[in-house]
Design goal:
mainly beta; 4-stranded antiparallel beta sheet
Length: 192
């Protein structure tokens, strides 16, 4: 999977360095248009970054296979790869979708919270968690959208992973993959 995000370099009155800008308000003069490339969710090249740089919002869609869902507590699954030195991932939201198979996860309890963290299952939470007795114990397709946690301390060059807190959802039954749509952007830790 590769992403290309185009912006333009522009210097406002009073700025000493040009910065990449996105969205509306493109200046009427002829701007230089840089391209920012993302490959496998990792920032690989950019024309100009500078302090305060951030990508546009990126949406990634994926599936956590049934075998991996069964072990999400012991073995978190990467949703977004590490962004590179000096950068962090800012998550806006995740749409979780339990694509119900034929059997519910038999060990999913309220404390077995589905969550997304920096680095690993013990890292800082990046979105609100979902109780395991709702999504994990669902006996039909289940959709839920969670948003950024109230307070997130950014972690430089850290992946975002899916994990289940407290314990596994699976003991002897459960066969549903977990699909996700994560909306995020890459940012520098430096301010402009």
């Amino acid at each position: 999977m590769a992403y290309t995000i185009a912006g333009y370099v522009h210097r406002n009155v009073g700025e000493t360095n040009p910065v990449i800008r996105y969205g509306t308000g493109i200046p009427t003069d002829t701007p230089t248009v840089p391209t920012v490339h993302f490959s496998t969710d990792t920032l690989t090249t950019f024309t100009y970054a500078g302090a305060g740089w951030m990508s546009d919002w990126i949406t990634k869609i994926g599936t956590i296979a049934t075998a991996a869902v069964k072990t999400l507590h012991a073995t978190p699954v990467s949703l977004v790869a590490t962004p590179g030195s000096g950068y962090f991932i800012e998550v806006d939201s995740i749409h979780w979708f339990l694509d119900y198979g034929t059997a519910t996860y038999d060990a999913a309890g309220a404390g077995d919270i589905l969550c997304a963290h920096y680095t690993n299952g013990s890292g800082a939470a990046v979105v609100d968690g979902v109780a395991g007795d709702t999504i994990g114990a669902a006996a039909a397709d289940y959709h839920v959208v969670v948003h950024a946690a109230l307070e997130v301390v950014p972690v430089a060059n850290a992946a975002v992973v899916a994990a289940v807190a407290a314990g596994e959802w699976y003991a002897a039954a459960g066969d549903s993959p977990l699909k996700y749509e994560i909306r995020y952007r890459i940012r520098t830790l430096a301010f402009a």
